[in-house]
Amino acid sequence: MLIQRSVLLLAGLTAACGGGSSDAPVEDAGVVADAPIDERLGFACTSEGALGCQGLGQKLQLRCENGVWVSNGVCPGTQVCDARTGPDRGTCQEPCTPLAGTCKGKTLVSCDADQLTVRETECATEEHCKQSVDGRCAICLDGQSKCEGTALVRCAADRQGFATAATCASEALCDAAKALCRAPTCDSDEHRCVGDALEKCRADRTGFEPSASCGPGLCDAVAKACKTVCAIGEYRCTGDLLETCNPTRTGFTGEKVCGPGLCDAAGKECDECVSGSKLCVSATPRVCSATGHWTDLAACAGATPICSAGACIAGVCTTGEARCVGNVLERCNSSLTAFEPVRVCAAGACNATLAQCDECSLGDARCVGATPVTCSATLRWSTGAPCSGATPYCIAGACAATPSGWVDMASVASIAFAGRSWHTAIWTGTTMIVWGGAASSGPMNDGAVYDPSLDVWAPLPTVPLIGRFGHVAVWTGSSMIVWGGTSNTTSYGYRGDGAVYQPSTKTWTLMPSVGAPSPRVLAAAVWSTTTNEMIVWGGAGSGVGADGARFSPSTGWRGMSPPPAGFAARRNHQAVWTGTQMIVFGGEGCTSHCDDAAAYDPVSDGWAVITPSGLNGRREFAALLTTGTEPEVTFWGGIGAYVDGTSYRSDGATFLATTRTWVPMVTPTEAEFPTPKRGSMASWASGRKLYLWGGTGGVGTLAALDSGAVYDLSTKSWSAMPTLNAPSPRSRATAVWTGKAAIVWGGTPYLANGKLFYP
Questions:
Q1: pLDDT of 281 higher than 60
Q2: Is the pTM value of this prediction over 0.70?
Q3: Which own/partner pairs from 110-116 qualify as long-range (CB within 8 Å, at least 24 positions apart)?
């Protein structure tokens, strides 16, 4: 910015010094008197005696006499007449050099055109002063360039501004530093292929940017698009997966996993059924149409009131009718189509008339809860007084002191329930429900319920799910939920379906598929008591997952936030519910075995990484909840990397959920815990004591075990469990705690037996 330090005094210029005027020396009409243009010799004037000059920088002095400018002399030497307004007007003064300037730092000192007025102007910099032109500060410097949009401009010759030197193809290509326009890298709308990625020239033509990600071999730079492999609205089936053409027509994306054999690409849907299939809904036959949907036929009535296998037939039996087949008591089923087993009676005790096994052999005894029942002389069961006082437990029909150790339980042979492992078992508060698993014949889809108070088994109703193992199961407080798993023992068969069993009505309800996690096996699940929903997380399907979802029996599935970055996808891990949050630890998928833990709060839908436990990575370990002064989650044993001749672990730690700290467990001795290095064991908790039994382990062996140990969190001490009358060796057995005893059942190798353990 220029700073003017003096005021230019002249408003105009006069003719050159000594030069006359061709105009007549008279005042023209309309010309203002004393105007500077009229300060010339012989021109009219109005201020008598006034002094003036014959123009700027001239030597001739003027004086107004008789209304005309006359000579008042000539300035001597180098002096010139002062034409400026003021007291020195018309006098002779020593001149300066017109339009010349000198610099004092960045201050420009210059002489005005009147050769008398000296002014000082503040230039932008000292260099701008040095490059001044005709007494004016330089606005720009020699060789200076800059970019104004797409225009490359350079400092003009008079240095009073910039002039356009070139117009660039884009702003980005204007290079002020090099004072040139760089050549474009590509042409407008030019495309190219880099592998399967389609790229286009950027708007500034400085390079390429991604345009689309094409499938293998589908990039077409000439067409400036990905080649299409399908049509919008086109569908296809890949196994049981229904797929549709993606919006870019470059491939197919999965839309829905259908039931086995129900994917219908032509109909663009998952069929409800296989064409020609038949079934019954109560007394109404259904047939599957050619389009794969169920069609109801006329309800069965009259002479054929029973619907069986999709057809109306006559009834085989009547409601409530019972019969004895040997010692097996059978009752007419709800559809009146057949007799179904109720229970196996004692020899000669099946009573079809009363439809029950209420007869007995003299001297027989049993328990109904805490009440002894004995067989009377009339061969009828007679109820005695409930057990109490010093003998509060009923065992084998007699009151006894609190039992201790292993106690036999009824066999499932009476209901033809196959032995199995990889099954699930839950405790309802009064009974244990076992469902699914792998048997010698393959994956199972049946279940059974055991009542320890009566020591009896009963089959569960048939569920419309395919057999599976490695699934999850939770108890909601009123119903059991089973979901996921795998239906194939030799290849992939991951399941993404499930069902809810209601014991009060003995009915199953299929779970919806909308919002469900992708099919998977070896996931972990808990029942959230704060949000009343099942939380399923992790597992393995088409890949190992770090995702999950939440299911409410009343509202269906909904999503959950992903865990923090760094908490890896995994399978075969453990999850424990503390009352407010789900704690996840261990598993497989973190390069090898996982050794980290995280907490998930379903109320806030937030995760938090837990301070490292100090335990190395593992799978198939025990995970138990106890409650001391705060919720305690204990992890022990398991299978990890091969160390010191074995993959099994004999250490553990307890996570205190409120203070978020870890307490290491004492390592047991061989006397306290025979073969402590083990995994795949049955485990349960009572008070602040942890019970671990069975499994596989040791060094250099995969043998199943029939021993166990107890860990007391209060005293931090181990003690061996009794082995008298213990179950046979096994791994992957299930265990539930009834409040009085643990029920250990099933396991490898496909065992169909178990026992109760009283501490």
A1: yes
A2: no
A3: 110/135, 111/135, 112/6, 112/8, 112/10, 113/10, 113/13, 113/56, 113/57, 114/9, 114/10, 114/56, 114/57, 114/83, 114/84, 115/56, 115/57, 115/80, 116/80, 116/82, 116/84
